[in-house]
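Folding Task

Wanted — backbone structure
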Amino acid sequence: MSSLTLRDRYELRAGGRVNLRPWPLADRLFVAWLLERLRAGARYHELLVAVAAPGAYPLRGSMEIDDALRGDPLFRVASDVVARAAEREGASADELRSAQPGVYRSVSEAARTLGISRAAVAQAIHEGRLAAYRTG
């Protein structure tokens, strides 16, 4: 069993630091766990679910990601870790922008938004090019 290392600060990919020292212990432990999963080779989609799926800890009980949540320091750091996983998997700049947690759509809505068929969305999900979370 490995131990988690609590950090005092986190370096954002885009530059800048987030001071973690005054954060509640539970938030710091979540970031430590997330970073440990990243170091252990967790895939982008696995981390995305931990950060942004309904019921995920950083959502703090919310079922949707709004501007207030996007500004929350814990969500910003957690989203940055998710983007690191996407980057490690070779995501392009456009894919990295979309790797930021926040938008959940049905397959039909995703197809309309992307201008492709439902089958193409399903294929992209199957190939790991489009993150998906099954509900219901």
The beta strands are 9-11, 17-19. Helices lie at 25-39, 44-52, 67-70, 73-88, 93-99, 107-114, 118-126. The CA atoms of residues 26 and 57 lie 10 Å apart.
